[in-house]
Write a structure and sequence with these properties.
Elements: H1 9-53, H2 59-90, E1 97-99, H3 101-118, E2 121-127, E3 134-136, H4 138-154, E4 160-169, E5 172-179, H5 186-191, H6 207-217, E6 221-227, E7 231-239, H7 263-273
Parallel strand pairs: 2-4
Antiparallel strand pairs: 1-3, 4-5, 5-7, 6-7
Helix pairs in contact: 1-2, 3-4, 4-6
Length: 276
Amino acid sequence: MDKPKPFSSEEMTERLQAQYTEIAQLAGGLAHEVKNPLSTIRLNMELLGEEIEELPDSAQKNRSIKRIETVRRETLRLEELLNEFLNYTRAHHLELFTANVNRELHEAVEFIRPQTSALGAEIIEYYAPDVPTIRLDKRSFHRMILNLLLNAAQAMPEGGQIVVRTRQHAGDVVIDLIDTGVGMEEETIRKMFEPFYSTKLGGTGLGLPIVRRIVEGHGGRIAVQSELGRGTQFSLSFPALPQLGAEEKSEPIVLPAAPSVSKKGAKNARKKHGSA
């Protein structure tokens, strides 16, 4: 009897990809099935809490309200975790279109700026005017940038600066996000892209794994440099589209050049603008 022919590397990759897709679909379906009754439980606990509030004051009433609030809070946390998990399983299902990376970045920055300003973070934009266009999924791209900018702002408890810039390097369009935050330890840098690993209280541990999957889904790469007490830089590299003429390059967005990143400058900016 002839021995079965071994799989080629291409066939093995295809089989593993098919198995992964099947598992991701099953996991996504299971998450949906769990999410729906969780929402119902949370809603009913809120209604029950409203009914108990109308009862006469008593020690039993206060205990019941606290227990209901605990259940409501935990179901909400589980819903958020399931939403993040669903985003993780969908991160490779992208619809890519040719886009102006400078414009997309600027839109994301303007959207998140009020939130980062409230945290004492000043965002400084510097976009190279001649970067080529890239192919991206706008919704996923914005989610990725917003996640990274919010993480950067939260890493600066005393405020600071976040520099957002674009550049070209070795045929790629590179986005740099640089903060003056607390930095990360080596162990955190090694594990930060592992699902469910988090150093934030209440974090799902899926934010950065989703970011990595989105970058890879665009055919790109992500690199991280960080130093404790000095800050962190994320560099996202995406393949540039072939340029047939100058008209296909990203249109320039007129912004001031990025100054040197310093916490002192950020504190002065917060005083000037009255940020918290």
